[in-house]
Specification:
Helix content: over 70%
Number of helices: 6
Number of strands: 0
């Protein structure tokens, strides 16, 4: 399934969840996070959009770290390691397509925001798994 369908599904799931939960104050935050959480499951695929975005972003952070602050370099190297390990260690639709990975990747939202925002981004993450499952059951 392509990234556009996953992104659209994530937006739809988030919009429904936000309307059901009555969440009004965090619309911008949630909509900025939707692309990340809708696509992060495919970080284990070398040709996915999120993998290439992650590689590019990590290289930009590494360059910034060389010229400005070492914090950028540390985060850039860490992100680069995560992307490369995901691509070369995990098989596609393996660990990164699990509920455990979703809980791990959504945990920072629970720490920095509330359970409501966590539930919404976890639902966006889960929409990716659901769409993959529906797609492969139809075929």
């Amino acid at each position: 399934m392509n990234w556009i369908i996953h992104l659209i599904a994530g937006i739809i799931f988030a919009a429904i969840a936000m309307s059901v939960l009555g969440l009004k104050e965090s619309y911008l935050l949630i909509f900025l996070l939707i692309p990340f959480y809708a696509l992060i499951s495919d970080i284990d695929h070398k040709n996915s959009k999120i993998t290439w975005i992650g590689l590019g972003f990590s290289l930009i952070l590494c360059l910034l770290g060389l010229f400005y602050q070492s914090m950028f370099l540390n985060v850039g190297v860490g992100l680069l390691a995560v992307v490369l390990i995901s691509v070369f260690v995990f098989e596609h639709r393996g660990f990164t397509h699990s509920l455990v990975f979703g809980a791990i990747i959504c945990a920072p939202i629970l720490y920095y925001f509330s359970f409501t925002e966590f539930a919404i981004v976890y639902l966006v993450f889960y929409s990716h798994l659901l769409m993959d499952g529906l797609f492969f059951k139809i075929l």
